[in-house]
Design brief:
Blueprint: H1 11-24, E1 30-33, E2 39-42, E3 49-52, H2 55-69
Helix pairs in contact: 1-2
Length: about 80
């Protein structure tokens, strides 16, 4: 059986905060949290809706944007 680490107690709050930042900076067009902690997110109005199954996937999305916004030398673009 694969080991799945337990999510941090505040992982849902951290995910919601990151979604708020991504929305505020226009990096995500729309996002809504479901009652089970899953998120539906759309990057652009005409793009596919993504299912983010838990807080860790939201954090992965935020980290991906951070990497894309940094240059290869680590400087912000």
């Amino acid at each position: 059986m694969p080991h799945h680490p337990m999510p941090a107690p505040n992982a849902g709050l951290e995910a919601a905060a990151w979604i708020d930042v991504l929305l505020r900076y226009g990096l995500v067009h729309a996002a809504v949290e479901g009652p089970d902690g899953q998120w539906l997110a759309q990057i652009r109005p005409d793009s596919t809706v993504w299912l983010l199954r838990d807080a860790s996937e939201v954090l992965t999305l935020a980290a991906t944007f951070q990497q894309q916004l940094r240059g290869t030398d680590g400087e912000n673009r």
